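Q: What would this chain look like folded?
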Amino acid sequence: MNDTDYMRQCFLLAERGRHTCRPNPVVGCVVVNAGAVVGEGWHAVAGQAHAEVLALQQAGARAAGATVFVSLEPCVHFGRTGPCTDALIASGISRLVFGMQDPNPLVAGKGLQKLRDHGIEVSGPLLPGEAAALNPGFVKRMLHKLPYVRCKMAMSLDGGTATRSGESQWITGAEAREDGHRLRARSCAVITGRGTVIKDDPALTVRVPGYDGRQPLRVVLDSMLRTPAAAQVFQQAGDALLVAASEAAGLASAAERYGHCRSAVQLAALPAGRCGIDLRVLLLRLAADWQCNEVLVEAGPVLTGAFLQAGLVDELVSYVAPCLLGHEALPLAMLPGMDSLQQKVRLRFLDAVMLGEDLRIRSEVLAANPQDDACSPE
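A: My prediction, written as structure tokens:
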């Protein structure tokens, strides 16, 4: 095996912490001595030992003189755990190969420099694009103070998300729906609007066999606080956040109304835009107050369109069913009419895979038409 092979092994190890280590990034580490792997580790739970420390513990005395491969630059600051750089230096390793530099301003090259200052050879970045793809939300939150936003949608081949009567359950099959649950599992928060809660009464929880990770924060946008307290989204274990417009009256009385739900329901009042809640402010708050790295939007065409119009969507995940719903079906997203192709929202296809009879298409949003006051009317 060469350096690239060992780094890709780090990436596979990092994925094991996908559902349990947020809001921290997923990280994998491999210790190699004399051509043999003597230690492996991954960051499993936030607040507990990091990947490097676990790998060094497994390696023991065999870490002396070894090369350590790690997908993300080792931390150099004190948080809930001590700096990984100190553990690496104390172990006596001779070389470190890193996948990418940590975008966290508290680290950002300082960990690598400390290792160099102690005579450890540092190589990298190695496969930085693949390393960054492990943690798109963490990277974006560190660099831009915003989470990585995915919009999930299920549609017919002709682009309908529901019949003209509003019936939508279920357009896609079981395999596609389970994949959607896996998107929830990797997300720190799932956002929907009051209209979707009223129409579909979703739980917005992860329901995958064997899943033992944390449930995402369930966020409901309701500018006037009219969502029923009995809604399923408020009757699940874990946290829920109900977001009103700042002008909405009765926040204190609403706290009493939602105080008896099974969920721990918190209320927030955010600035309003022309048609509801300012979505950019919402995302900034989710990143700052809830440390949300990745956010999933599961909503109707109005809220989905508002996120797209505001230029806040990073990725679309579209599940396409082999059926047609006709020209009166509800569309994927309600966007303003466009007079020129220059106004189009541009995408780049990332991949397409079959899930049972359905097709999943992942697309990167390359360019939109952001409006500062774009907001949710739901």
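The CA atoms of residues 61 and 91 lie 8 Å apart.
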